[in-house]
């Protein structure tokens, strides 16, 4: 049951991250610094759900749950440790501090991912939740409803982030 809930959250988080790359200049700028060919994956061990994003051809794209070879892998040690993070009860920074998650790959890329997730959580979670889990909730450049609409109603079309128009 926990794995199903996390898979649903990953579906929305994955698409929400891509939506925020379209809407928010900070997320777009951040993923624009990721090297060409970068693939980032969030996964729940031992064999739980995952979601991935990539930068290829100057475009940022949500890859969904398909199996990929990540450049950066963030692994939550188990569903019990991941669930509070993805239900908005704990922040990503707290999950790392409590050793609920580990990072394999470039630490600076991991910090970039955390900065993006901080902004994305600010769009996807209501203010009452973000005040509790984020050290200082990020200012939204666009209305939350715009992020929700893009998350739900658009395909996984890529976002130009390097050398292209946004």
Account of the protein in words:
The longest helix is centred in the N-terminal third of the chain and has 22 residues, at 2-23. The chain has helices at residues 2-23, 25-32, 79-86, 92-97, 107-124, 127-133, 144-153; strands spanning 39-44, 50-56, 59-64, 72-76, 101-104, 159-160. The protein has a six-stranded mixed beta sheet with strand order 5-4-1-2-3-6. Strand 1 and strand 2 form a beta hairpin. The model has no long low-confidence stretch (mean pLDDT 84). The chain is of the alpha+beta class.
Q: Count the strands?
A: 6
Provide a count of the helices: 7
Largest sheet: 6 strands, mixed
Structural class determined from secondary elements: alpha+beta
Order of helices and strands: HHEEEEHHEHHHE
Terminus-to-terminus distance: 38 Å
Helical residues, percent: 40-55%
Lateral arrangement of strands in the main beta sheet: 5-4-1-2-3-6
Kindly report the average pLDDT value.
84
Sheet-strand content, in percent, reads 15-25%
